Amino acid sequence: MRKTNQNQVVQVALKVPFAPYLDYSIPNDMKPPVIGSRVVVPLGKNKELVGLVVAFVGQSSHKNLKSILAVLDGEPLLDEACLALLKLAAKYYQVNLGEMVFTALPAWYRRTENRPIPHQYWWRVAVAMDVAAEKLKKAGKQLEVFEYIHKHGPLQSKTMSHISASAAQICRQLKDKGLVDSAEVCFLDNDSAVDPGFKLTPDQANALTKIRTEKDPFKVHLLDGVTGSGKTEIYIRLINDLLQQKKQTLVLVPEIGLTPQLFQEISQRINGQMAILHSGLSDGARARVWQHAAKGLVNVVVSTRSGIFTPFKNLGCILVDEEHDLSYKQQEGVRYSARDLAVLRGKINQIPVVLGSATPSFETLNHAISGKYQWLKLRARTNQNPMPSLTLQNTRSKTFKKGLTNPSLHAIKNHLAEGNQVLVFLNRRGWSHKLICHDCGWVAECDDCDAYLTYHKHLNLLKCHHCERRYSWPEFCPGCGSQEVETMGVGTEKIAAGLADAFTEYAVVRFDRDSVKTPAQWQKNLEVVRSGEPCVIVGTQMLSKGHDFPLLSLVVVVNVDNSFFSADFRATEYLAQLLVQVSGRAGRAKTKGEVIIQTQFPEHEFFQMLFQANYETFAQQQLAQRDAMGFPPYTHIAIIRGQHRSERVLDDFLQQLASGLQKNDDISVMGPLPAPMQKRQKLYRMQLILNSNDRRSLHQTIHQLKSLSLAQVEQKVAWFVDIDPVSFD
Ligand code: ADP
Ligand code: ZN
Ligand code: ZN
Q1: Do residues 251 and 266 lie in contact, with contact meaning Cβ atoms separated by under 8 Å?
Q2: Is the pLDDT of residue 646 over 80?
Q3: Is 285 left (phi over 0), alpha (psi -120 to 50) or beta?
Q4: pLDDT tens digit sequence for 667-709
Q5: What confidence score (pLDDT) does residue 6 get?
Q6: Does residue 154 line the site of ligand 1, with CB under 6 A?
Q7: Cis preceding-peptide flag for 672 (omega within 30 of 0)
Q8: CA-CA distances (angstroms) from residue 6 to 174, 433, 535?
Q9: Distance from CA of residue 686 to its chain's centroid?
Q10: 705, 629, 627: which is closest to 661 by C-alpha?
Q11: Which ligand minimizes its atom distance to the CA of 262?
């Protein structure tokens, strides 16, 4: 047994559910670890875990402390500010510090062995295009890769997997021939930044001045700007300001697909080092970005949600693009909101936070209205293009061809003939929405979930979109034996097939989870669109975000009527955001943009509010309703969701939890209620919904409930708490 220092005890945060941290002693012959570094510690009989040192204390209340086995970091992996962020986040989301820490740490850093982080290479061209073309006359693939780097570089070889599976090897061959260079960080020439010579629009100039002259070092700015109003230009100028001051910027984007676009836009305009961070990268690559950011080797990190935890040497600002996007909320494990944590981090670091969106979330708008956030409006497009015109097309009396009405098809034809591109948007993949019996009304449902089955024609199978279980086509109706079983409704597969039939001379590209499963497929589809040829793009949610398709002049939206029947009080907020975002994709082109929405309810006041007025007016009106009804953002919600094979066990469990709560007039508890999707993958799902005017009471109640359940309620049911849920499902 090693001798240990009796006067110093280390508190180590571990990924265990029962305690925020555990106490360990330090062997006398070990150099003590520093706060914020990782150590390996024993747990139980023979487990060894990685933990993070969070504090030192003189003494422990426990006897016979075990001692640390190894110190993994000589310097803190997380600085004081990052630790403070994690501590506050753990408290806010009601999880143990260790769970929070291990949500934040990239997988690489969760391993007990301390291997060196593997190298990452970025490639850029070293010679002009014609020189390479001459040298590579006989090496077609190499030339193709060179051309791609020439056009899009600097970049990493894996972004070229759509050109060749051995892109990395080809890059090395190009390097041997002296045609490309490589570096560990994404190097950019000092003279590479191009100034587009824009004169800022008055809105842009005003917003920028307001941000620049803000006295408070921590201020949240809402950059509320319509699509094409030049929000990115403001981000770029702010990043350049910070570069001058030798400070770093964190840019958050909602999804992986958007990282390359923003990365490229920014990288062309700054003289600095940039990095991308998202879950598509290898463990090693993600650890590398952490290391480079912490050492100050990169100036800008463009990242998805989890990047909010990246340690920086000298962080100067956090930019959250498309701040309304639900992807910022993690929907498993620790259910944190990266947008909200960005604001918290800004406060801890005393730096500005910019939230950008064409359709701000009602939470954020509420803070802008109350003056807590600075509200910067950009209402004009930089190219002075008018906003697209809108047609609401009543589908009740129209005839359809594979989901599209004749007027829609006609409009598509015209836009294509003018050389433009068209987007048909609908949020349902597969061929059809349902399979029904015409004689008795039976509808095919999943045995394991509370959900209809979708027909997928290319597979000739029915699929449940919630558990991916597959079923074959029933030869006759299980309800009445009839053979009149047919599909009903449309999905992307059917729409795309119909369009391919109708417009044989144009490409039809489909973006959904069935047709785009890998970054290479995504890239391949994108190349078709970027080629500039007229084409029809069929897409789901995947395409509604900030992707820039400059030649798009018509957007047709199919089937959004379900939102009008949703039980979620936020359904119309989300629908409005979706429609405005999707519409915004049209009309960056020279031709005036046009938007067609196929709906059964063209006279619905929702459309009148949103399109005859605008998003801001719509939001104000909806906010007033929320206020009157006592819903967020005027109140605070948490849900407690459980799941179990037995509905009765689940119900009993949640009843017990609810009845264990002390009476508190500040809080209303609803439930146990079945979740909107009552059953998923054979498990029943139920929830308690807690709603309160007072955030503090709500948190106290949940805290009490967690300790209560651990002590008194039988732990038969898997359950979790979701603070500020964005969905009830
Ligand atoms: P947003 O992010 O608000 O949708 P972008 O930042 O993508 O808008 O800007 C739309 C287009 O306008 C981009 O091509 C951008 O380069 C260009 N742009 C930005 N600011 C200006 C300006 N002041 N004058 C002219 N063009 C501009
Ligand atoms: Zn039947
Ligand atoms: Zn299912």
Answers
A1: yes
A2: yes
A3: alpha
A4: 999 989 999 889 999 999 999 999 999 999 999 888 888 777 6
A5: 67
A6: no
A7: yes
A8: 60, 67, 73
A9: 26
A10: 705
A11: 1
Closest ligand to the CA of 483: 2
The structure's pTM equals 0.91
What pLDDT is recorded for position 241?
96
Residue with tokens 């929830």: 687
Task: Find, among 614, 55, 553, the residue nearest to 380 by Cα.
Answer: 614
Give the number of other CB atoms < 10 A from CB of residue 224.
Answer: 27
Task: Give the separation between CA 232 and CA 238, rounded to whole angstroms.
Answer: 10
* Strand, helix or coil for residue 697: helix
Average pLDDT over residues 174-193: 77
- What distance in Å separates the CA atoms of residue 253 and residue 322, rounded to the nearest whole number? 7
According to DSSP, residue 35 is labeled: T
- Reply yes or no: is the peptide bond before residue 254 cis, omega within 30 of 0: no
Q: Kindly state the tokens that stand for 66.
A: 């075990």
SS3 track for 263-293: HHHHHCCCCCCEEEECCCCCHHHHHHHHHHH
d(CA 572, CA 563): 7
- pLDDT at residue number 710: 62
Q: Does ligand 1 have an atom closer than 6 angstroms to the CB of 359? A: no
Closest CA to 357 of 302, 306, 320: 320
Atom of ligand 1 nearest to the CA of 225: 3
233 lines ligand 1 (CB under 6 A): yes
Mean predicted confidence (pLDDT) in 338-364: 98
CB contact at 8 A, 309 and 86:
yes
- Of 312, 382, 381, the closest CA to residue 351 belongs to 312
Give strand pairing partners of 319: 251, 354
**What's the CA gap between 166 and 520, in Å, rounded?**
13
What is the SS3 assignment for 260?
Answer: helix
Per the CB < 8 A criterion, the answer to whether 103 and 333 are in contact is yes
* pLDDT tens sequence across 24-43: 999 988 999 999 999 999 99
Indicate if the pLDDT at residue 496 is higher than 80.
Answer: yes
Q: Any idea how long the chain is?
A: 729
DSSP alpha helix (H) spans, 93-230: 97-104, 129-135, 140-152, 167-176, 202-212
Instruction: Confirm or reject: Cβ of 181 under 6 Å from ligand 1.
Output: no
Ligand nearest to the CA of 681: 3
**Residue with structure tokens 């907020």?**
573
Is it the case that residue 350 has pLDDT exceeding 80?
A: yes
578 CB neighbour count, 10 Å cutoff: 18
For 125, phi then psi, to 5°, come to -75, 150
Question: What local confidence, expressed as pLDDT, does residue 546 receive?
Answer: 60
Nearest to 223 by CA among 236, 234, 212, 239: 234
